[in-house]
Every structure is written in C-alpha cells, then in structure tokens.
Amino acid sequence: MPFSGVRATPKTGATVAKRKVLFICHNHPKVRPGGAEAYAYELHCALRDSSEWEPTFVARTGPPLSPTGRPHPGTCFSPVDGASGEYFVYGDDYDFDWLFGTMHHSKELYTRHFREFLLALSPDVVHFQHTLFLGYDLLREVRNTLPDVPILYTLHEFLPICHNNGQMIRTMDGDPCTHDSPRRCNECFPAITPQTFFLRKRFIQAQMSTVDRFIVPSALLRDRFVDWGLPPEKVKLEEYGRRIASAQPEPDDREQRDRLGFFGQLSPYKGIDVLLEAMRELHREDRREAGTDLANAVAERIGGSRPRETASARPQLRIHGANLDLQEHAFRDKFDRLLDETRDRVTLVGSYKRDRLSELMAGVDWVVVPSIWWENSPLVIQEAFAHGKPVICSDIGGMAEKVTDGVSGLHFRVGDSLSLANAIRRAVDSPALWDALRAGIPRVHTMDDHVPVVVGMYERLLEERAVEGVAAP
Amino acid sequence: MTRSIGDPPPGARSSSHPPPGVRAAAWLSDDVLLTVADTEAPNDSEGAPNTTARFVRAGGAEWISAIRVPPGVGPLTGGPERLVVANGDAALVLHRRDLEGKLIDLRALLRDHVASWTVEERVRFVAFLASLLAVDGASESLAEGAYLVREALRERLPLAVSEIAAPRTLHVDRLHRISERAFYIQGWCHLGDALLASLTAVAPEGSRVELAAHAFRHPRPDIAEFLRLREGYERTVPLGFVAYFETDAPSLRRDGWVVELRDDAGRGIEAIAPAPQAEAGPTRDAVLADLRIERRRNAALRENHIRPALTKLQELREQAVAIDAVEDYGSVPSKPSVSIVVPLYGRVDLIEHQLVHFANDPELGDSELIYVLDSPELGEQLAQFAGQLHALYRLPFRVVTLSANGGFSIANNLGAEVARGRRLLLLNSDVIPAAPGWLRMMLDFFEATPKIGALAPKLLYEDEAMQHAGIYFQQPAGEPEWWNEHYFKGLHRELPAANVARPVPAVTAACLMTDAGLYERLGGLRGLYVQGDYEDSDFCLRVREAGFECWYVPEVELYHLEGQSYPNATRQASSDYNRWLHTRLWDQTIQQTMAKFAADEAGAATRPTRVPRSQTVAEE
C-alpha cells in the first residue's frame, strides 16, 4: 500500500527536519562478514549520529549468503533485529542472472516491492553500495519512482566490468587483466559468446546511466571505470573513512618483529595459499639452516672458531579469517594440506568480530595482504595502519597504491610465494626496518574526515537539482 | 460438369428395348448418388436438374449420372424426396419410391453395369469420378467412394520388384503432399534397354498425372550398383527421378497412391507409393536437399520442380498464418510518426536489451513499437515477461502473436498491417542502438530526402567493425548468379569512405525505414525466399522499380549482433536456392543498377575487392 509521502512539517522554532539517505547493500555484515558491507554499515552508523541526516540501511538477504527465509507473506522487507532504520530485503537467488546482473523473469522485486518501499520512505538521496543479488534494474526503478532524487553508487570492485567475480584476473592463468573487450572476455569464458559480453556491457552501462555520482575509494578503480566507459565527471575519488577503535598505540618493547597476521576471507583471491606456501618455504629454509647450525656447533667445539651470528628469526603467522566453506573443494583441500605442512609456524585463529580487532592486532607485528587480484582499497590495510603495523602486500593495484614500498611497508611480486618468503625474511630479520616503516605509516582517513565529504556530495547534487528545477534524465 | 461423347448414334435402342428410366442406383458416398439410366428418356423437364455430372458410355447405350445431394439427405435418410436427372435437354424425375426398388450396393452396381466395359472405358470412368472431387468441394466420403471404384475397376499391372534380374523395375522413395493437389515425388526406375513410354502417378481417387516427359532424371549410383548395371549405364539413362506435379482434382486419401510404368513395347509394372509425407517442414527440407542432385545449375530441375514446390509451400504457409492476438502494454500513441516492427523468432530475451536502451531515449515516445511473435510457442513466456518489462522500463509497446511460425516476410508484413505510423521501420530483434537520438536522425533524414523509398543506417558488430554500410550486387568471375555484398564489411566504423551518406543499390531489412503506404503498395516483403535472406534486396529492387532510391545514412549507428536467431545447419541449402531465384527474377535490373552505380561511384577504391566466390569456401 503506497504511503502518501507527506513529510511532517516542523513546528516553528524547532529544528529543521532531517533529510533522509537510503543505503542499499547486497549483504549485512551481521549476516556474513565482508569488506564492502562492513564499510557501508560503518558509514550508516556514523550518519546515525548526524543532526542533519537520517540514514536507512537496506541489506539484501537470502541464499547463497544466508539461509533465512522470506520473513512475511506479501512483503520482502523486514527490520534487522527489530531496529528501525535497518532492513533486510529478501530475495531468492534462482531468478538472479549472474552474468547480466538482473532478474530474469520477474521484475516484481523492483516494480512492486521496492517501489512501495521507496514511496513510503521517501528518501532525499539514494546511495547504492552494491547491486549484487538485487540487480542493476534497481537503479532504474529508483530513477523511475523518485525522479528528483540524486542517486550515488560506491564501487568496491570490478563487478560491472568483469564476470570473473569482479576480480579482473584471467581464468586460464590467473594473470591480472587490465582491460575488457568482448573477445577477451570470451577467452576467459569460452561458453559465453563475445556478443553476449557486448550485450552485458551495454545493459549494465544503460542501467548505470541513471546514476548521478560514482564514488571510488582508489585511483585504480577510478581509472579502470573511466576506461570502461563511465563519464569521468561523474566519478569521484574518496577513500573509505574508518571508525577504528584505538588511536595508534605505542609499540611494545619486543626484540624481534617476527609475528605476521592475515586478516580476511579465506579465498583464493586473497592469496592465502600464496602466503602459506611462503611460510612453508621459510620453514624448509630454517630447517636447512638448523642443519648448518649443528655443523657449526660441532666445528666450534672441535675447532674453537668464533660462533656464527645468531640464526635468523623464525616468523610465525596467525590467520584470522572465515568463509572457507564458500570456496571450491580443490581450494579447501589445498588450504588444509598447506596448513598441515606449516603447523609449527601457522595458527588458524578463525573468524573474528571487528570489535575484537585491536586485541588481535596487538598480537602481530606485520599484516600481510597477499591478494592475487588488484584489490580496491583493502579495509585491512587501513586497520593495520591504524594500529601502527606495517603492511607486506602484493605489488599491484589498490594494494600498491595504499602501501608504499620501503615507506609504509614492503611489496612482493604478486602470486609469487618465493618473493613473499624473501620479503618476510627481510622483514623479520631486521627490527630497525620495522621501526622505520612504522614511522612511515600515513594517517588513516577517519570517518570524521569522510562523512563531510560524502554528505557534501549529497548536498551539491541536491543543490544542482534545485537550480535545474527539472528531473534529471 | 457433364461428359459425353457426342450424340447417340441413330438406332441406338437395343434390341431388348429396356424400359426407359433409371435402371439402378447406388450411393457413391454420403453426398453423391450414382444412377444408371437409358440414354433416351422421356421429355419430362419438371424442375431444374440436380445432376452434378454425367458420364456417357461409348456407344451411348446408357449413361451414369452422379448427383450431389444436399447435406442431410444422404444414404441414411433414404435419399432425397425427389430428384431430377438430366441428359442434355431431357430430364428424368425420380421420386424416392422410384429409387427404393433400384437402390443397390455400389459394388453390385459396378459389377452389373461397369465391370464389363473395356479397359479404356473403365479408365475414363474412374477419371470421371475422380474429377467429381474438383467440383463443389471434396469430402472424405467421396474420396473413399472414388477409391473403392478405382480399386474395383482398375487394370492392375504386375507389381514392381527390386531384383537384379528383373527386366524392368520401379520404386517410389518418397511422396510429399504439399497440398490437396500439389505433390512432390522422388524415386527411381530401370527398363533395361527399352524406352520409357509413360510414368503415371495415380491418385487413390483415380486422378492420373503423366510424368515421363516432365520428371527430372538424375543418376542413382547406389541403385546402379545394386542392380549390377554396367559401367557408364547412367550416362545415357539416369535411374532416379523427381517431379513436382499437380492433379486436376483434389486428392484427400492418404493411402492408395500407385505409380505405373510402361515401356515402348507396352509392357508395364506398377509400384505402390508409401503414404505421403504431409508435414511442410520436412517437405521443404527434402526439396531443398534435391538441389544437390544437379551437377551444374540445371535450370530444368530448379524451374520446373524445386521452385514451384517451394513457392507453393511458402504460399500455403503464409495463407495459414494469421494474427492470433494483439496485446498493448501501456498507451501506445494513436498517431505515431513512425511504427517500429520487430519480428521475434526462437527467443524473446532480446526485447529487454532493446528496451533498456529505448528507455533512455525520449524520442522513442512518439513512435509505435510493435513486437511480432513468430514463435507462438513462446507466447505464454512472453506474455508474463512483457508485463514485467513494461512495468520496469515504462515504455509502451504492442505484442502481436501469430497463429503459427510464418517466417521473416510474413512476420514483418503482418506487423506492418497493424502499424499506424506514416513511416515504417523494420528492425531486427538483435539490433541495439549505439546512442540515443538515432530514430529522430533517421526520420529527419527520410523526410528531408526526395524520392527516398528505403533508408538504412550503419550497423556494427560488437568489435566496432561494420556489419552493414549499404548493399551492392556482385557476380563472381564466370558465375551467373548475383551475390548480395555489404560495403566495407569487417572494416572499422571510422573508415572515412564508409562515412558518406549516399544512395546505394539496396539496404538491409535489419534496420530499414520506408513509407508505410509504399510498403503496402508494393506488398511488403515477399515470401518467395526460404528462411530469410534476399527479401531485403528483393524489396529494394521493387522500390527502385517504383521509381524511388535506397539511401545509406552513416551518422546513425546501431549494433547488429547478427546470427543469434537462426541455426546455421539449414542455411546453406536455402541460401543457394534464394540466390538462384533472386538472380532469376532480377538479373537484368541488377545489371543495369550496378552499371549505373559503377558510373556514378567516385573511383573503384571505395569498393573493396573480393576473391571470386568460386575460389573461397562458402561462408555462413
């Protein structure tokens, strides 16, 4: 039943009614952890404190991420844990077309359910954080239903460009990919014709033409999307703002900096297997060395020569992460095998809640981000920096953009476990290096920095509309 | 219709001087009564005759009348109250009670009154009954009756056997029933050293069609080997035959076709044909496959057999297809400037890919968008989907559902019939715009260009190569047939020579703008061609004939993701046929057109040279 859309008029002398922003996301971090949704929810929570803006957060729920069923007959929406201002929107995934990002048979989710919700809520701004499982069609429905409302879209990965899970790495050899074309995409997916990829691109771009502003957290994403065809004047670079608990703590007094930490999803894209292979390589090196130590000790005893320098430090790794169950069998088996081979060095801590992060960060000296895909702006890098931990990461994409080699961390060759092993060796063998890199860590962009920029975009767009006086196409 | 062989000779009354009037009567079928009567009848011309047809024996001693009775007065009711049987000027009145004593079983009538006739007379009589089916419509019951008579009276020849030692042999591989009167037969025959005198197809109801001179003979090396014929035998007398033929009267009965063969010494055999294959699809495929049996572009085969068979098939198919339903989604403009007709075949998902772009183009608002569903089995799926699409994209459009799959031409023509716009745009479902504003640009160009009959834009492949930039005609070296070629196909869209708006010999129907009135006057696209191809150039040549030009406008660009609708398997055979037919119909005009364009064109460099067709492997 459509809401009449009447806005409550403020009494004289009372504060002006808050303007409303609607966030739309593909998942709620309370249901499944994930970077984009974590940030989106942090932004929503930050705006709850605002005196001018009233945010509503809508997260899609349902398979494959959550087993929850449809909440009530006749509606797809239901409040999250009874809160007002947060909703789940339920969707089956059987009708969702992964290739085109659309609902295949029924558009009722948009034309009936979302339309009524939009009319009832009557937001002043709609800010998409994702359309996965919802469909790009939702952009059009918002434009149709709320012609005067600015639409923003924050891009977190390359899903509109790349059918390979939005990673832009090639299926045949795992190499990073720099640009799309119908032919190249067909090479990655031979069963899908170049014409179909062409249709996909045109379809997504046509739906996205309803968006007024795209926000990208990294120069990498900005450049890739402009290259793909988004109008450059619509694409704005603005880093994620973070509300991370502690200020940078004082370093403790440890002699050795040999504790590594991995924080993230246990998926092949995150390069966790590359890291484990590097640990295995280090373990083997150390054992060879141990053999040499013994020989030296014997020689010393016999020959009285000066003892060699102390053996190198032994790096330890803690893995904090989840979602192994979402991966394919082959990867899960590989992961288990590698974990077994490195059990002296590696501890699988398991999944973690973001509010325990500081505690967990205290237990590591370095944070490793070994992703084999480009990455956008990994939240874990900001979190590591916020806790004064230098980052060891792959030398491509968003990682290389946010971490400067030799200044705030170390790079290694993407996907190359030997290169990573060398970087780790270098890192743990020299505590002075750790101190220097720690000093080079840049200031983390906080939510207090970020919110005014985002809100500023909303206000500018609203002003533009007021000036034009007509609905944008 | 009466048959007689002249006046009765003087003194024809037989010695026994039988009483005048009807001697016997029998029901041939539920609606035809046969009466046997004397030639001389009393002059009783009370009322008009019911006689449908009359057959007079040689010698004129008696005649047999076939009387068509109205429905409801058939054998079960004892016949009509009153009948008038005519003989030229004379007529005989029968009352029901007169019949009662005379009514006998059909077989009895044949036995008593017809069986003793000569072979020739019996043959004539059977043909006479067969011809009844051509008059006043044929019924199954009449077909059955005629078949019974044929079987009772016909002279049976020895049955053909396919044996190595047989002096003569005959086999019918397939008989295709295109319609009640149109058939296509495939078989082979062998007469040793004798000559073929007659090869006659006999319909179950008795119609006879002589095929010996007309049929197309072709080698059957497999049969020659089976019969252990000497090397080179088929060079003089090929064993195989195919023929398209039409009967004088309709044939309704499936079983009972017989083919008779006679040699020059009068010796004959007969073969029972298999029950006719009556489905249009397999028949068309079989006829198209027969294009392969000719060695070198044999005109006789194509002109006398393949073309009439395919043309008849297409005609029947088009007649059978009608508009089943027209559904409007949203309010379609009642006086649109242009109507866009989009045929849908085999898939309906591409509609969304057009609408997502049309929705971003406000200029589409004044046009009438018509989707024609030529795959009616997808009707239900489309009906659900169309509503959803309209709700999301908010564009009005119409869906015209056809009663059966009619093919590209009829789908466009029926869509055009429903269209209300002054101008008409034929658009393929796999064409999507490159940018908004394309329709307005095309329309403006059309309105501004004098004597324009057809207009098409630049069409692109997904890799930015050109798919269409105007059509021209080319004969490969040494070949008589004209091929349709696209200027600059495969070259990049920005090629300067391709970006000149100009008149061209023809344009593609994938995106063709024309005047609705002109389209109607010319009869739209012609369904002569099989499975798409050449309808567009055929239309453009008729446009030229009517005194108009075809134009190419490169400023308008759309993508054409061609080849996503049709399966490739059957394209080759139908392409060959279409190309032959197209040349057959337009050779002179194409020659003149290309000569004119060669003279006008600013240098041959604008047209890419191509390797002669005969040296390349056939594409597509």
What does this structure look like?
The complex is a heterodimer of chains A (473) and B (620). Chain A has helices at residues 35-48, 108-121, 137-145, 182-188, 194-208, 219-228, 272-303, 329-341, 357-362, 379-386, 397-402, 417-429, 431-439, 447-468; strands at 19-25, 53-61, 77-79, 86-90, 96-97, 102-103, 125-128, 151-154, 213-216, 235-237, 259-263, 316-320, 346-350, 366-369, 391-394, 409-412. Chain A has 473 residues and is α/β, with parallel strands linked by helices. In chain A, helix 2 (108-121) crosses helix 3 (137-145), helix 4 crosses helix 5 and helix 7 (272-303) crosses helix 12. Chain A starts with 18 loop residues before the first strand and ends in a 5-residue tail after the last helix. Residues 1-13 of chain A have low confidence and may be disordered. Chain B is α+β, with helices and mostly antiparallel strands and 620 residues long. In chain B, strands 16, 17, 18, 19, 20, 21, 22, 23, 26, 27 and 28 form an eleven-stranded mixed sheet that branches. Chain B has a five-stranded mixed sheet with strand order 1-4-5-3-2, sandwiched between helices. The longest helix of chain B has 30 residues, at 571-600. Chain B is globular and about 85 Å long. The chains are: A alpha/beta (473), B alpha+beta (620). The A-B interface holds A 102, 105-108, 110-112, 137, 140-141, 144, 181-183, 194-195, 197-199, 202-203, 206-207, 209, 473 and B 352-353, 356-357, 359-360, 362, 384-385, 388-389, 391-394, 432, 462-463, 559, 561, 564.
Kindly summarize this structure in a few lines.
Chain A is α/β, with parallel strands linked by helices and 473 residues long. Chain A is 38% helix and 15% strand. Residues 1-13 of chain A have low confidence and may be disordered.
